[in-house]
Design a protein that fits this description.
The protein is an alpha/beta fold. It has 13 helices and 19 strands. Strand 4 and strand 5 form a beta hairpin. Helix 1 crosses helix 6. It starts with 8 loop residues before the first helix and ends with a strand.
């Protein structure tokens, strides 16, 4: 099979004709790299090139730069490609300041970047809303610049986004307790653009490619982390992977008409809790995590009323999962089972065995349904 015919995430994106973009995490990493290089050498690299988690090496033009004694600032304008991202066009700045030897890399929230104020997120309360993968990406690039130019790598990075507090009002951050601005996000560094019609068409093409290649087991994944999980679990080839994004219904309805022997649905716990509750479109603008539904599932799994009430009042789906895990209530498995049942209902008796895997943000499996159906 030629590379043109192969399936998987990359082939789906190419098929849509949509232009990918860069996450705020990529932009912050590029700005950090440029600022720290200038701090050590006196000159800003422009454009500045970074290396993303999957090895891509994009270059970013600088939109702002400033160098003073012991401190440098660089800014990059976010390009979200063809994705209707509210942060498209935002100026992401990183200010890098030297710290004493042994301090490591310290992150601060500048203007327009939020601070975590409630539990249930992948960062502790009080921390700037710079997510774990972008943090690691920035640490890695600081280390590379330090090695290249004789620095210690001990720096404070203050990330800011011009007008970020205003932009954040159009996001879920205020409801999640991330106050003061945006989150710096991204797991791959790339924004995958979603046009509903184009992406659903690409899902259908992905199923067709898998069937033409003789694949009997395919996986619908919500993103790159879930793709890695199913590859580790089942050693599936690339053309058996369907990047369903938020369009779980599109996968299920097409597989109903074009069956395969087995379908694995894998995604984040919060997203799949929406499927479990009967939503087929998992986008945050069109469906939300129902904590009352999770509380009912927790009761089914042995939670007492006090725990169920805490689950119903949890800040996020992850917080609800953590509460149940601490009490020995298998909420992840219950969500996976319920999501599998919803998938089977959509399949309407099609001869397809279904299993569901729920993961956390790090890709750790937190719930399984086991295979059924068919």
């Amino acid at each position: 099979m030629s590379s043109e015919a192969k399936g998987g995430r990359g082939a789906q994106l190419k098929h849509t004709g949509l232009r990918p973009g860069w996450t705020t995490g990529s932009c912050a990493t590029a700005a950090t790299t440029a600022a720290y290089t200038a701090l050590l050498t006196g000159a800003f690299p422009d454009p500045v090139t970074i290396t993303l988690p999957k090895g891509q090496t994009p270059s970013f033009a600088l939109a702002a730069e400033e160098l003073t004694e012991g401190r440098a600032m660089a800014g990059v304008v976010k390009d979200a490609g063809d994705d209707p991202d509210v942060t498209h066009g935002a100026l992401v700045r990183a200010t890098v300041r030297r710290l004493p030897a042994g301090s490591g890399v310290v992150f601060r929230a500048g203007p327009g970047v939020g601070t975590v104020t409630r539990p249930g997120l992948p960062l502790p309360v009080g921390e700037p809303a710079v997510n774990p993968v972008p943090r690691q990406l920035m640490r890695d690039h600081v280390a590379r610049v330090a090695a290249a130019h004789g620095g210690s790598g001990d720096v404070e990075i203050t990330v800011s986004v011009d007008h970020g507090e205003e932009i954040a009002r159009s996001t879920w951050n205020p409801r999640l307790g991330i106050l003061g601005g945006l989150s710096i996000l991204g797991t791959t560094g790339i924004v995958v653009p979603y046009s509903c019609s184009a992406w659903i068409d690409s899902i259908r093409r992905g199923v067709d490619v898998a069937r033409a290649a003789g694949r009997t087991h395919v996986a619908g994944c919500t993103g790159s982390t879930s793709e890695r999980t199913v590859v580790a679990e089942y050693d599936l080839p690339e053309d058996a992977l369907l990047d369903m994004g938020d369009f779980a219904g599109a996968v299920l309805k097409y597989v109903r008409r074009h069956p395969v022997d087995r379908l694995t649905v894998c995604g984040g716990f919060a997203k799949l809790s929406k499927l479990a509750a009967g939503h087929l479109d998992l986008h945050s603008a069109r469906s939300q995590v129902d904590k009352g539904f999770l509380a009912a599932l927790a009761r089914r799994g042995g939670a007492d009323e006090a725990l169920a009430a805490r689950v119903a009042d949890a800040n996020t789906g992850l917080a609800a999962l953590q509460l149940c895990a601490a009490a020995g209530v298998p909420l992840g498995d219950l969500v996976a089972l319920e999501a599998r049942d919803q998938a089977l209902a959509v399949l309407r008796g099609a001869p397809v065995v279904v299993d569901v895997i729920c993961i956390d943000r790090a890709g750790t499996v937190v719930g399984r349904s086991g295979p059924s159906g068919g």
